[in-house]
Amino acid sequence: MTETLAQLSTVFxxxxxxxxxxxxxxxxxxxxxxGARATAVExxxxxxxxxxxxxxxxxxxxxxxxxxxxxxxxxxxxxxxALGRLSSRISTRVEEDLLNDSENxxxxxxxFALTIIGFGFHVxxxxxxxxxxxxxxxxxxxxxxxxxxxxxxGVFLAANLKWQIxxxxxxxxxLVLVLQGIALLRYYxxxxxxxxxxxxxxxxxxxxxxxxxxxxxxxxxALSGLQLLQYRRERQVAESRPQQFAFLTTLPSxxxxxxxxxxxxxxxxxxWTFTLIAGAIWAEKAWGRYWGWDTKEVWTFIIWVIYAGxxxxxxxxxxxxxxxxxxxxxxxxxxxxNFGIVNVFFHGLHAYSGL
Amino acid sequence: MRTALFLLLLLAIAAVPGSLVPxxxxxxxxxxxxxxxxxxxxxxxxxxxxxxxxxSVWFSAIYLLLFAxxxxxxxxxxTHHFRAMGAKPPRxxxxxxxxxxxxxxxxxxxxxxAAPDPILTARDVLKANRxxxxxxxxxxxxxxxxxxxxxxxxxxxxxxxxxxGVLLAIGVGGGFGYTGQKIVVEGQSFVNSLPSYNSFNxxxxxxxxSLAPFSIAVNxxxxxxxxxxRDAIGTPLDYTAHVTxxxxxxxxxxxxxxxxxxxxxxxxxxxxxxxxxxxxxxxxDPAGKVVFSDSVPFIPQADxxxxxxxxxxxxxxxxxxxxxxxxxxxxxxxxxTGQGALASKFPGLDDPVLSLNVYAGDLGVDDGVPQSVYSxxxxxxxxLAGPPTKTKALExxxxxxxxxxxxxxxxxLDGVKRFATLEVHHDPAQGWVLLFAILILGGLLxxxxxxxxxxxxxxxxxxxGSLTVEYAGLARGDDPNLLSAVTAVADQHSGAIAGxxxx
Lengths: 355, 503
What we know:
The structure holds 2 protein chains of 2 kinds. By secondary structure, chain A is an all-alpha fold. Chain A is built from 10 helices and 1 strand, in the order ααβαααααααα. Chain A has one domain (2-29, 106-345). Chain A starts with a helix and ends in a 10-residue tail after the last helix. Chain B is of the alpha+beta class. Chain B has helices spanning 2-15, 17-20, 28-37, 41-47, 57-86, 109-112, 118-128, 150-176, 430-449, 482-498, and strands spanning 100-107, 132-137, 141-148, 178-185, 189-191, 199-202, 215-225, 236-246, 252-258, 263-265, 268-284, 290-295, 299-300, 308-314, 321-329, 332-334, 342-344, 353-361, 381-385, 394-396, 401-403, 410-426, 453-461, 467-475. In chain B, strands 4, 6, 10, 11, 12, 21 and 22 form a 7-stranded antiparallel β-sheet that branches. In chain B, strands 13, 14, 15, 18, 19 and 20 form a 6-stranded antiparallel β-sheet that branches. In chain B, strand 2 and strand 3 (141-148) form a beta hairpin. Chain B starts with a helix and ends in a 5-residue tail after the last helix. Chains A and B meet through strand 1, helix 8 and helix 9 of A and helix 1, strand 1, strand 8, strand 11 and helix 9 of B.
């Protein structure tokens, strides 16, 4: 029975991966289309950049004033000169067109739908594994990979309810596919019972919060990476040099990406802090001390310190922007290292990989 | 901030080596092994304190500097924050249109007479939104300056002070606490006093008085192994030590100690950290007189099937001193390496065999130097049985008796008991560490998610008798919702003035 369920779980996981792969392709197609359209738009509306800048710089005057006691009017913004107004209207329309079009592009809609269906299969795979093992499905590296990637996709989908970050799909799906591929090749283990040290409700709390933290860090990592590319492009535009990655023109500015990355990374940081504390409480119960510089503890601590550095960097003159983005990227690299390398190759008490 | 950032990054880098090289604190056997595998490199690394990274001079220097810079940061910030909490929000800027979220609304002259005073209304609206407010007036205008989110800075300070608290509590706990290990065979008991420990690590300020007077008798140790799941035969499922405690002040009481369920007794926690087998061995001289009888703990080697190593020393009663090095196989099988060697195929006691190499000569116990019972120095001993000698190692199953070589006497294996490795840990500051950890989390949540912002509402008289009401805000720290907050205040305020329901 256990074996059948575990096999069924793997079958569902394969199905989810197939759907994710299709979604990945569709997300990538969307980025390519954005790139192509952005290039076309730039060719069509040359003065738009200037006009746009004028528009932003224009002071918001009496035109926006609402009269109290009357229904609010639509605020007609824009520069005063007729030419400026015209070119700005063109650029606004083209820009809106571009944004709306890509938000609703067929490939993006397909990509998102495929991700959601894949997520459904993934949930079933995870639940089946849990039923097969008669416990939470995150007690060894295989199960952790399965649940971890599930939560990454889940956080990505949920984050899209609040922010428009579908453009991260290529990265998120790509990461999940790579992680699942590695897990299938290297981490698969049959269902085995829990060793006594893992028989604790802290297994549920400590690990699921660690997974959540990892998922937020993954999104933050993607945004910080995009932020660096976007910043590079913005500099190239400012210096009138040729630019690569045309799709970037359809994404938010590097400052907006940085702010979003920060907000997502601090959620990850809080989850990570909780993981650290919960881990210490559990270690006290299971191993007789709350902190012993076990290799896994060391790396969890290192990651915490790197992200603490990231948060400080945002408030440090000269470190905002690209430098802090690099810290977020290093932080996520350490998260991956902690999971993929420390668990398997380092000697320590966290010997639960099941390999 | 730059110093703090630099030291944080340095701390992250400095912590790495401790995960690459085994540490004395967490993996002493690994250190010994590292020394024998890298005889050239290890002493150099040892000079650099690479085996004690987290107590090393350089690591300590980094975190002490970090905490020094932290103290240097929080003291002025705390005083500043206290002052800010007592002070009124600062004067409204002269030109609000430069501030974030600026918007202006006109209160027509026709409505003004019926409308309540706009600035007093603004004050009430902002107060209702939990802003701290102050009214200001200049030649042309009256205004409200409002600020909220002082909790953000409070949380930030609590977070940083709690970090200091954790460090202090760890220091106090380490200084006044102690950790000790004791191997207790079923049927034996353990009294919490210095001589009874197998190993003991006191803190710097430890005194004997901090050993709570209690004793623990291990009546039985239950161990369960997986027997059905083919992928996990022999995986331990449960360890339970059934014990009787005699606590400070209480009568005897029976309880259990499990892996995730330590026993709290006399301000101390007792953990079940390991277990193994203790064969009961009796040695008799040729006349049949018992010269040795004990349950000897055999320490499990790195084998999930619990092949265990133990030492039997018989200093008196035989014509020579006798030492034995034994391997215990809970469920014996022929070893994969062949040549008649043995191995264990299951950690449970299905088919136990004890195999002993016998030595005779000088055990070295007479010159008064204390010796570990978990080792045997064979330099002054002559091997009598077991490879590489021609005599086979002695092999015993429970209930069996065999002759010792050279007519020394007989040895029998009467039975096999289990032993529990108990760890006694006393940390007087552990509760404080937890408290500060919770404060860290709480401080972090408030300092990252409570927005600190200022909002201004200013009323400017116009020549036609109407009033322009201006609204603007200022984020102090990360505040993604500032603009919508200004708009919300503006909507509420103009709604209140116009007499329409609040939005």
